[in-house]
Amino acid sequence: MRMKRKRRIHHFGEWAALIALVIFLAPACATKRYWGPTMGRSADSQFTPTDALEKALKPASFDQYRGRTVWVDAFTLTERTGEESAEERFLRSWLAEKLLSQGARIAPAKNQSEVILDVKARVFGVNQTRRDFILLFYMEKTHAIVDLHLNFYERESGKILQAEDLKGEVRYREYYIFYMIGPIKTIH
Amino acid sequence: MVASLTLILALLPACAYKDYCPPGLGTSADLQSMLAKSLESNLREIPFDPAGKRVDLHVRAWGTFRQPMGLEGYVKSLFREWIVSRGGEVGPGQFQMTVFLPVLGHSAVRRDLSYQYVPIYYSERFRTTARMIVVIKDAAGNTLEVWQKGEGADVADIFLIRILGPFDIPTKK
Predict the structure, then answer these.
(1) ipTM higher than 0.85?
(2) What is the pLDDT of residues B50-98, one digit of tens each?
(3) Which of A118, A117, A80 is nearest to A102 (CA)?
(4) Distance from CA of A156 to the nearest CA of B (A)
(5) Entry pTM
(6) CA angle, B70 as apex, B54 and A172 as ends, to 5°?
(7) Do B8 and A81 touch (CB under 8 A)?
(8) Interaxial angle between packed helices B29-43 and B68-85, expressed in degrees from 0 to 180 and rounded to the nearest 10
């Protein structure tokens, strides 16, 4: 009888310890949240595509347009409120800077250019995946992809001078151990 | 004690979720990629040879984007490249090509299979629909050809016990 009682107390103690452990671990859980539209686009969703864009443009050489006047047109499949999306504006300006740094000139108007750089972004954005290993581990992964198709047209003749595909990817992860320790950040 | 802890951990395995929450994320990379693939696959089958022809190109879109002019610009750029790369020219002349995009959109279906609260299988199936109508006219305005195609793309991301994955399964090209 006494043995049975002892065993019951022992079991009760085990469960109490377990519940105490859960209660200790469960609070202070870290969760990254974005509340759009007040927060706008998250910082992770901004810096990863720009890093991916930089990677995509690394092998590109615009040397053959040195001294020539270029107009940049950018097209994406992203959401917009006006005629031009934020991605298109950014892409156009970024490429204009790349061209300038390699000796090309940017035309003040399309009809004053010698070459038209037509950029189609098949992808310029991120995918986000969240993983929870409840009690132990929580991770947010932001995977940015930039997939560009570039066409250089001679404005006068309309002929294609050069066509190029450029692709860049960046994976950014944030880990939280026990939902409390972190974020531990990695970028690839 | 250890057994109980193992049991709890086994019952509460890792949960993976793909988050699509604009505007925090913008238009997801998956969606853009699938829309681009849908448009490109439709373009491959147009029964018109633009070689040696001058084509006046117009695009009219209606669909998923708040402002269709952006989509029209993308499609126009795609068609321009298609015409020029096949030896044609873009501009007012012999032929007029009007591209209508009555549908360019997507839907997502999420499936969860669990047993006794243990998630076994979770998938997100992403399907795009792109319907394209191409009307080709001569300089006098007579319709020479009307071609239409409804091609989409279909991709499923599968997670097993919510920790293994995602496995990308293209269900239709």
Answers:
(1) no
(2) 999 999 999 988 765 566 667 888 999 999 999 999 999 999 988 999 9
(3) A117
(4) 11
(5) 0.77
(6) 125
(7) no
(8) 40
